[in-house]
Amino acid sequence: MSTMTSSQKPKITNRSSQMRKKSMMNNKAHHHRPPCTRNQRIASLLLVFAACFFFIRSLDRTFRRPCIPNFTTDLVRTSRLPFTDGGDLSWPQRGYGVHLDLKIYVYEEDEVDGLKELMYGKDGNTITADTCSRGQWATQVKIHKLLQTSKFRTRKKEEADLFFVPTYVKCVHVLGGLDDNQINETYIKVLSQMPYFRLSGGRNHIFVFPSGNGAHFFSSWATYINRSIFLTPEGDRTDKKETSSFNTWKDIIIPGNVDDGMTTTNDLVGVQPLPLSKRKYLANYIGRAQGKVGRLKLIELGKQFPDKLESPDLKFTFPDKLEKMEYFEHLRNAKFCLVPRGESSWTLRFFESFFVECVPVILSDQIELPFQNVIDYTQISIKWPSDHIGPQLLEYLESIPDEAIENMISNGRKVRCLWVYAPESAPCSAMQGIMWELQRKVRQFHHSAETFWLHNGSIMNRNFVKFSDWKPPMPLP
């Protein structure tokens, strides 16, 4: 191997030498550059965070669905819906979502043999929908009428999420259109003709039971419609029956029907709320005793403290019966409206109190209230143990400053539109709340101890009979 002599090695030119020296100087300068200060590092991080924030905001505005506008209130949290009276209310994202997506089929009165009788009684009766649209049980008619014109109504059974069965049985029973046995027999007759009822054992069918009796108006309810959705103001599990007809899992508590004359106070000057300073009484109970312990206690308490508590012993007949406008006049003349239990735990007086703007004091231990996942009732009412009705109740109410009372009245003003059965065009109504609750009851899948299924999706009972071939009576779930 030949070797290269020193004279033969390539010589480093002056230019190369200069470049190498310059590079070494640059590296040396880099290693001796002073580090960033703490403030400079914080500023850099803030710039990065700001850039990320505005980038994410731009993506969010581009891709997200429109949502309900936001306001602030202590009553409710998350997104809000504006109210016509200047109030606002929250519809929680959790469990509700941002929009309603329902299809409800409403049975026609002539569609099923017998359905008309559950609405108007036997042939020859003069009962009409208008007749049944008044009084505290009118929800059975109002909900039906509002669903008939709803944008969520579908005419196609095959695409329906839910089915509404219109019946006015409370009104029909009170007016003598059907007796108890006829109601029971007619319900069974109607249900046997509904093929879509059998598809889910009735779980996607809706019934309104507007009184304290609940579903017990249909005495065989536990056999035939135990899976169905009940809309009722009554959630009392101490209703003196062997089986409570209310089930939190499937049923919905609704507001009772408040007289239209109270919910549209602008048209009735006489029902306008009074300033607190002009109210004669601390509290009142304007109702009949009906032999109920709590009510009898209030009547006696009113005799003991007539200057603080107005609690007359009213009857069903004159002269100890108040006309509607007289009742409103008395109700608005106290700071607190006492709400004792009646035949059952729910009472219309609770809802009425919001429209004369007195604070309701609930004296019904088992009462269930509507829309509890939306409304914080501690901000708009008081609940007092019914076994402590006495002077201590009045002492407590007297200790509450007017400022706190005004605050509760103001909060109640924001949510009372949920007690009004208004058209769908209204930004806030009882029907709007009910529709949200119904959406939560829609189930893609229906399971119980008596349902079984196979690989092809067939649902059947334990004897391998398909759900679609089931016939009433339905076994308990």
Automatic annotation (TrEMBL):
<feature type="region of interest" description="Disordered">
    <location>
        <begin position="1"/>
        <end position="35"/>
    </location>
</feature>
<keyword id="KW-0812">Transmembrane</keyword>
<keyword id="KW-0333">Golgi apparatus</keyword>
<feature type="domain" description="Exostosin GT47">
    <location>
        <begin position="102"/>
        <end position="389"/>
    </location>
</feature>
<keyword id="KW-0328">Glycosyltransferase</keyword>
<keyword id="KW-0808">Transferase</keyword>
<feature type="compositionally biased region" description="Basic residues">
    <location>
        <begin position="18"/>
        <end position="35"/>
    </location>
</feature>
<feature type="compositionally biased region" description="Polar residues">
    <location>
        <begin position="1"/>
        <end position="17"/>
    </location>
</feature>
<dbReference type="Pfam" id="PF03016">
    <property type="entry name" value="Exostosin_GT47"/>
</dbReference>
<protein>
    <submittedName>
        <fullName>Probable beta-1,4-xylosyltransferase IRX10L</fullName>
    </submittedName>
</protein>
<dbReference type="GO" id="GO:0000139">
    <property type="term" value="C:Golgi membrane"/>
</dbReference>
<comment type="similarity">
    <text>Belongs to the glycosyltransferase 47 family.</text>
</comment>
<dbReference type="InterPro" id="IPR004263">
    <property type="entry name" value="Exostosin"/>
</dbReference>
<dbReference type="InterPro" id="IPR040911">
    <property type="entry name" value="Exostosin_GT47"/>
</dbReference>
<keyword id="KW-0735">Signal-anchor</keyword>
<dbReference type="GO" id="GO:0016757">
    <property type="term" value="F:glycosyltransferase activity"/>
</dbReference>
